[in-house]
């Protein structure tokens, strides 16, 4: 007896529909509608997840700009440790020594000698002038180095950076209440008060010849006005977006996951995409450091400039590490909770290990507590996850170590729940490799 094979509808050949009954046609139409909806959902899910991954590095930069670069107190607290950095101290010592030696030499020291005695004294010094100048420079260098290593210099360093930061942000934001002036195409800052403070501190630290340094009005170039015009808009946008862009990124990521047909897989994809995106930003910071140092003027101290750069981007690098670790932890957690073969095998090892541990302790039942835990097992597990997420978000400035510690504590809490659960399991259950 011949049997009619089930047709494979293509959706294009009208002859296919003649071999289907009404119920099959209805089911096929519903299936097609569902597939179209799935395709639309998958498209928008992928779009939102991609936007979240792209915005993740920008969110890290915006938070860095708003909390670190635009905030004077935070900026000063960041650069304060540089006052004790050996490379920075060496660079400042050399620069200050050169500036002092341009104003102090043998001629300036002989200025107080009576005019009638100067020719004889200069003739007597004769060939000793060069060694004396060298000895004077060594004395000045040693005195400046001692001062730069003191607490007095650390206070001046903080004050100078506070003034410089206020001027820089004022130039970027267009604030006219700062000491910044635009002359032609150059943004300048008058350093006369800074020179006076440094001179007084050097004199008070034992370098008496520093008192002969006159008041110097000098303009320190912060940036070209064209450069300020180019970066001002971007700076303001990042500063304003500092508090909102991370929230928008999270909303986009959550929306992408909720729209996805396979949500657990979407969580893994989103977490890994964000982790990779911020990792690329971290690599970019390292590459830019090399480019930045290679384009320094020849007279600049490369090691000191590198120390300053590393300190300025320290908070941004920390944020990158936190987001990267968090992304990996979330992706791992979502994967382990799935129904994949390897995920089930890992969970089997976990459950069998805890069961064997209970058996080793001689505990066969945890009584009423075990029955209660068994009843509310999933609620307790989700409660642990929720508490871990809340702790992470309310932590002021979490570090990668903090994220890992929160994850470890959550794993321990889940292990306790598994230990107390009294559902029947063979204590020596065999775990087969997937």
From TrEMBL:
Key words of the record: Membrane, Transmembrane, Transmembrane helix
Chain positions covered by the region annotation Disordered: 1-23
Annotated transmembrane regions: 42-65, 244-261, 268-292, 318-337, 379-395, 401-420
Biased composition (Low complexity): 1-11
Protein name per the record: Integral membrane protein
Organism: Actinacidiphila acidipaludis
Lineage, opening ranks: Bacteria, Bacillati, Actinomycetota, Actinomycetes, Kitasatosporales
């Amino acid at each position: 007896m011949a049997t009619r094979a089930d047709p494979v509808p293509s959706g294009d050949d009208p002859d296919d529909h003649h071999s289907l009954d009404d119920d099959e046609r209805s089911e096929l139409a519903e299936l097609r509608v569902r597939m179209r909806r799935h395709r639309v959902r998958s498209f928008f899910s992928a779009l939102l997840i991609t936007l979240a991954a792209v915005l993740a590095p920008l969110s890290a930069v915006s938070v860095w700009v708003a909390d670190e670069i635009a905030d004077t107190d935070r900026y000063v607290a960041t650069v304060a440790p540089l006052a004790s950095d050996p490379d920075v101290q060496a660079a400042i010592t050399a620069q200050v020594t050169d500036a002092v030696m341009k104003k102090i030499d043998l001629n300036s020291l002989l200025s107080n000698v009576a005019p009638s005695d100067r020719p004889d004294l200069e003739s007597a010094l004769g060939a000793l002038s060069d060694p004396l100048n060298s000895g004077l420079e060594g004395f000045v260098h040693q005195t400046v180095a001692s001062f730069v290593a003191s607490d007095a210099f650390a206070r001046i360093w903080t004050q100078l950076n506070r003034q410089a930061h206020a001027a820089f942000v004022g130039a970027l934001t267009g604030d006219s209440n700062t000491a910044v002036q635009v002359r032609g195409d150059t943004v300048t800052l008058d350093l006369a008060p800074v020179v006076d403070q440094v001179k007084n501190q050097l004199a008070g630290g034992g370098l008496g010849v520093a008192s002969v340094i006159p008041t110097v009005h000098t303009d320190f170039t912060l940036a070209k006005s064209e450069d300020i015009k180019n970066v001002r808009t971007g700076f303001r946008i990042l500063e304003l977006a500092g508090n909102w862009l991370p929230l928008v990124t999270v909303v986009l990521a959550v929306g992408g996951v909720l729209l996805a047909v396979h949500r657990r897989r979407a969580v893994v994809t989103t977490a890994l995409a964000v982790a990779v995106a911020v990792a690329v930003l971290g690599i970019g910071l390292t590459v830019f450091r090399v480019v930045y140092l290679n384009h320094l003027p020849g007279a600049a101290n490369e090691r000191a400039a590198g120390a300053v750069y590393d300190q300025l981007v320290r908070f941004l690098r920390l944020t990158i590490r936190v987001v990267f670790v968090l992304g990996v932890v979330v992706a791992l957690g979502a994967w382990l909770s799935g129904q994949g073969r390897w995920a089930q095998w890992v969970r089997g090892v976990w459950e069998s290990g805890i069961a064997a541990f209970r058996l080793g302790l001689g505990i066969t039942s945890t009584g009423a507590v075990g029955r209660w835990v068994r009843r509310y097992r999933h609620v307790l597990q989700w409660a642990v996850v929720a508490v871990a997420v809340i702790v992470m978000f309310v932590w002021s400035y979490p570090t990668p170590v903090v994220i890992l510690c929160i994850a470890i504590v959550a794993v321990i809490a889940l292990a306790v729940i598994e230990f107390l659960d009294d559902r029947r399991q063979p204590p020596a259950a065999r775990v087969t490799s997937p």
